[in-house]
Amino acid sequence: MISTYLKPLAEVDEARADHLAFVAELEEAGYSVTAGRIDPPTGGIILLDVDTEAEARELIAKDPYVRRGLASYTATGWHPARGALAGYQRVRKD
User: Fold this and answer.
1) Buried-most residue among 10, 65, 68, 82 (CB within 10 A)?
2) What is the pTM of this model?
3) Per-residue pLDDT tens for 36-86?
4) What residues does the YCII-related domain cover (predicted)?
5) DSSP 3-state helix, strand, coil percentages of the chain (rounded to 5)?
6) In 3D, which of 32, 13, 10, 12 has the Cα closest to residue 23?
7) What CATH number is attached to the domain comprising 45?
């Protein structure tokens, strides 16, 4: 999921602690593989381990950034074929 901030960075940062707690919950549940802010800070990326775009959208709808109208997300599918994530194995706690 690739986010784009919809409000000024200062306003986004006011909700950052809540957003990071949300990302930590995704990590704990095994949904988030990695996440981080885009540089320059105009949004971010959360690499989710899900089966469908609908599942990704359902999860991301709970992001405080989305709930507060601070960011929108675009879904982009990806299958790692090379590098550190090639052969990635799901660790989700279903």
Assistant:
1) 65
2) 0.90
3) 999 999 999 999 999 999 999 999 999 999 999 999 999 999 888 999 999
4) 6-75
5) 35, 20, 45
6) 32
7) 3.30.70.1060
